[in-house]
Amino acid sequence: MTTAIDGEQMIDASSQRVWEAMNDPKILMACVPGCHSFEKIGENLFEAAITIKFGPIKADFSGLITVSNINAPKSYTISGEAAGSIAGFASGSADVVLYDGETPDQTRLVYTASADLGGKIAQLGKWVVGSTSRKLAQKFFERFNDQIKLQNATSS
Q1: How far apart are CA 79 and CA 67, in angstroms?
Q2: Domain map of the chain by residue range?
Q3: CA-to-CA distance for 64 and 126, rounded, in angstroms?
Q4: For the chain, what percent of residues have pLDDT higher than 70?
Q5: CB-based contacts of 65: which residues, under 8 Å, 6+ apart?
Q6: Where do the coiled-coil regions begin and end (predicted)?
Q7: Residue 50: which of 39, 42, 40, 41 has the closest Cα?
Q8: pLDDT: which is higher, 42 or 155
Q9: Secondary structure E strands in the chain
């Protein structure tokens, strides 16, 4: 079952600062809901473990995340594949693009993502999976914005 998600987030930081945060494993780990680990294991390659609840099913996933199509400091594609034991599997990718905001200290982050799920999770239906995926994306970008604000406060 494939789910598509797109959206945007205004972030009160320069595009350079947002780009740096998008490439910081510690920040990404703090932003991904349910993330237990997020480690760089190679050039543009990460290993992650997360726990996600889809409706009544709570599943642990572990897998690899790759960053590609890098156009620093403006855009990249982040993709991954993960196995979730009996719950199923997940794979997906997101194209992330940074645009200048109305001021030099503002950035508009735009994303287009798709996820493919299989196994028990896919049996929950497109509505549950889609709703959960949108909520996870929203939480991620809220947390990302909070991390940027925290960085701004500590560097001031």
Answers
A1: 7
A2: 2-151
A3: 24
A4: 92
A5: 38, 45, 46, 47, 48, 78, 79, 80
A6: none
A7: 39
A8: 42
A9: 2-11, 35-42, 45-54, 57-71, 75-83, 89-100, 107-118
Residue type, 75: S
What's the DSSP call for residue 69? E
pLDDT in tens, 42-101: 999 999 998 887 777 788 889 999 999 999 999 999 998 888 766 677 788 889 999 998
d(CA 6, CA 93): 11
CATH architecture of 2-151: 2-Layer Sandwich (3.30)
The two tokens of residue 74 are 């403006």
CA 137/CA 26 separation, integer angstroms = 18
Provide the H-helix boundaries in the chain.
15-22, 25-31, 126-155
C-alpha R_g of the chain: 16
